[in-house]
Amino acid sequence: MTVAVVILNWNGKKLLERYLPSVVRHSKNANIYVADNASTDDSLAFLSENYPEIKILKNTENFGFAGGYNEALKQVDEDIYVLLNNDVEVTEGWLDNILYLFKTSNDIAVIQPKIKSTQNKHKFDYAGAAGGFLDSLGYPFCRGRIFDTIEGDEGQYDEDIEIFWASGACFCVRRECFTKVKGFDQDYFAHQEEIDLCWRLKNIGYSIWCCHKSVVYHQGGGTLSNVNPRKTFLNFRNSLFNLLKNSKKNPFAKIVLRMILDGIAAIRFLLKGNLKHFFAIFMAHISFYSFMNKMIKKRKKLKQNEQEFVVKSIVWHNYFLSLNTYNQIKINNN
After folding, report:
1. Distances, alpha carbon 301 to alpha carbons 46, 99, 200, 246, 314, in Å
2. What are the structural domains of the chain?
3. Positive or negative, the Cα torsion across 146, 216, 106, 180?
4. pTM above threshold 0.85
């Protein structure tokens, strides 16, 4: 089983300087690539001078996360793609544990490691934590992170389990599975395209897993910070894309309800004086409408299956029942 670690980069020289050494040190049995989204900083010069053994895949423009990987991976032939953010520190044995889990079943299409925070290594990371899930309205949450509540790692999620989606911060996928569903949806540009890909794979019978013995640390916000309204726009719009494309039961009813909740979120931003994020949600809905026909056409070409959700509404459980951890929610629903 051959492995390619593919790091997407856009003007990330400082991040490569900090995090690439751990990848080189702990990925001896993998081929390492940097897929560059037409950087204008000194990223490529830095790589050529300091890591001549790393293969550089040059994209002609900034295609975002989805398009950037789709273009670059056309040149990669290994059996397993490990798509790694340029702001991730890996640890000893991280790949061995993931490969062992892949070998247990050909039905496993995607695996993520346990993802913890670079800033506080005792805590989980926002983007993926110990495995991602969705509620029935398309809101993502994780073992270890419910909305903005992030848990410390006390070993409470130290088991390999099937999850709903794996984080794009460290996304390990079989090449044949990635190719079978034609990769990421480039209309997403960035954010939640990994959720869409996992959902499409689940709808055709594959499973997604978290490998707890594999641990990485993620800085987060290396390319687009959490306070950037562009991130808010992409997350709200792309979440609606996910529902329309992949949800089998009453997608339009779900979308209407989701838009009402989005409106409440926008009003909260407005009341806090955060006009940029208020308008980001408004523009996300406008953009969704403009893409709706295109997404409906995509939906008709896809297979939708009923999926089991840990919880129907994470908003209800978190904001009204004050349940702030995955284990609390799981116990409440058993």
Report:
1. 43, 32, 11, 11, 29
2. 3-218 (3.90.550.10), 229-303 (no CATH)
3. positive
4. yes
